[in-house]
Amino acid sequence: MALVSGLLEIILYVKDMQKQVRFYRDVLGLPLGELAGETDFSHHFWVEFDTGSCTLVLHGGSEGRVGQDAPRLVFRVDDVEMARRALVGRGIKMGQYRLAAPGVKVCEGTDPEGNIFSIESRQEV
Fold first, then answer.
1. Residue 95 CA: distances (Å) to CA of 41, 91, 101, 116
2. 25 exposed, middle or buried (CB, 10 Å; 0-12, 13-18, 19+)?
């Protein structure tokens, strides 16, 4: 049985949300999620695009090296606590889980080359 059940989202850290939304929506043609009716994205720090099987998320306010730091891969799991224990048992370095939003548990880890990934479970609230 697989520990993860698919790629949930890819988080891309951005500095200029308005410019990035225009690129992904207007140039590439990706449909916006819940902010579909918005025109000004300069005050948003989280914008989602529907890409089919997973979500592309633009995350604003980045202090990192935008364009150089790797996007964050977020994998869907049924139970973050159980999946974290299993990964730690397999020798994977994992942080503590946290509540990112109501019903959303997240935990970060690193792959063998130091790339950060997350596991996430969502419960209907």
1. 31, 13, 17, 11
2. middle
Q: Where in the chain are the domains?
A: 1-62, 77-125
Q: 20 and 14 in contact (C-beta within 8 Å)? A: yes
- Kindly state which CATH superfamily the domain 1-62 is placed in: 2,3-Dihydroxybiphenyl 1,2-Dioxygenase, domain 1 (3.10.180.10)
Q: Are the C-beta atoms of 81 and 92 separated by less than 8 Å?
A: no
**What does pLDDT average to in each consecutive run of 10 residues of the chain (125 residues)?**
84 87 86 87 91 88 64 89 92 92 92 83 82
User: Which residue type, as a one-letter code, is found at position 49?
Assistant: F
